[in-house]
Amino acid sequence: MLPIDLDVTRSVRAYMASCMNGPEFSLERVHGGLCDAVWYSPKDRRALRALCDQHPQEFTRWLYERERDGRYTGLIMVWPAGYSTPIHDHAGLWGIEMVLQGTLGVEDYELTTDERGEAQPRFVGTTLLEEGQSCAFRGTAGHAHRCTNLSARRAAVTLHVYGGLLETYCNFDPALGGRYVAAPTIARIDGSLGATRVRSA
């Protein structure tokens, strides 16, 4: 665990506790209130800039929350300049992604079944997320996306909340003839930040 205690992760923990313990969960309500609930301080910006500098060429994923009941997990991701993920799903989990530093392009895909019975991503559209902006997805079986740090010079930092334990998912790797092959992938965690702990409801 890195000794980085962030205001932003503390504020997200408190906000998510109120949302998850409410009478009825609503992804729209959670997403709608997240931006107002988050406090991303100058101290946080300095701390995460130092984290970017430690791994300037690597895409890294840092756990800041894992609820004991498995209802959600929280991650900070650091994106090197120009980095793009493969097209990937989220194993059926809902998610919220917020940009803390930089600019992210999010390409959305619909997964359709081809004549072989294999899932194939079909491009739907792109969302541009600047600092402080976020997007949400339901994580249905037909959803996938690809994210790209749009800066060729600077790292980006994003905050993620997932509706469960995202331990494995599928990348969709390009193959011959414009096809894609689903590749089961382990959701790597590079480390933990701050006061990360298993929490009960």
TrEMBL record:
<keyword id="KW-0408">Iron</keyword>
<protein>
    <recommendedName>
        <fullName>Cysteine dioxygenase</fullName>
    </recommendedName>
</protein>
<comment type="similarity">
    <text>Belongs to the cysteine dioxygenase family.</text>
</comment>
<dbReference type="Pfam" id="PF05995">
    <property type="entry name" value="CDO_I"/>
</dbReference>
<keyword id="KW-0223">Dioxygenase</keyword>
<keyword id="KW-0560">Oxidoreductase</keyword>
<dbReference type="InterPro" id="IPR010300">
    <property type="entry name" value="CDO_1"/>
</dbReference>
<dbReference type="InterPro" id="IPR011051">
    <property type="entry name" value="RmlC_Cupin_sf"/>
</dbReference>
<dbReference type="InterPro" id="IPR014710">
    <property type="entry name" value="RmlC-like_jellyroll"/>
</dbReference>
<keyword id="KW-0479">Metal-binding</keyword>
